[in-house]
Design a protein that fits this description.
- By secondary structure, the chain is of the alpha+beta class.
- It is 26% helix and 35% strand.
- A hairpin with a 6-residue loop joins β4 and β5.
- It is elongated and about 80 Å long.
């Protein structure tokens, strides 16, 4: 819990001049947050905080890499991260996250940005992540190719109950008539 306090930003003492913060989101950072999507990596976080009227603007620039699991071969892979984000924060009575403004209790007077940094990193990861062509685990690729070939064979020669193929099954003649109407309309 001690290291998470490094990510506190004291809002009450901010002035209109920008204040710069720098952190490294590394393996210890991800472990500390007990993160599920990202558990390893190294991302440099540069943040500038400035008071703007009754709001506080926090600008983030994140650059580095994280390790994720390849969707194809299930081996670990490196994924580059480069993202810029902004948080608008205001002081209020209770914590709230409404629209594009985060409200933190005025009695606290600070915001801990550790979880926001993690969210920025996690949201920068694409839904599908695979190694570059030729970089996947060769053993896993060969197993995948074998199973894909087996699936292709099954798709070309489907077998139904009792071992009958599509062409051996009897269809209701009413469906045959409906198919003729569809075929006529598609021409």
């Amino acid at each position: 819990m001690g290291r998470i306090s490094l990510y506190k930003v004291d809002l009450k003492n901010l002035k209109s001049e920008p204040v710069k913060y720098n952190w490294i989101a590394d393996n210890e950072f991800f472990t500390m947050l007990d993160a599920q999507d990202v558990q390893k990596g190294k991302v440099t976080v540069d943040m500038t905080a400035v008071k703007s009227g009754s709001s506080y603007i926090l600008d983030f620039a994140l650059k580095g890499y994280v390790y994720v699991t390849c969707d194809r071969c299930l081996d670990e892979m490196t994924l580059d991260i480069e993202v810029t984000e902004q948080l608008k924060v205001q002081l209020g009575e209770d914590f709230a996250d409404k629209d594009d403004v985060i409200v933190v209790p005025e009695t606290d007077g600070f915001i801990n940005v550790a979880w926001y940094i993690y969210e920025f990193i996690a949201l920068a990861i694409p839904l599908k992540h695979v190694h570059a062509p030729g970089k996947c685990n060769k053993d896993m690729e060969s197993k995948l190719a074998k199973h894909s070939k087996d699936q292709d064979d099954m798709d070309q020669n489907p077998v139904f109950d009792g071992g009958e193929s599509d062409s051996d099954q009897q269809t209701d003649p009413r469906w045959d008539e409906l198919k003729k109407i569809l075929d006529t309309n598609n021409d």
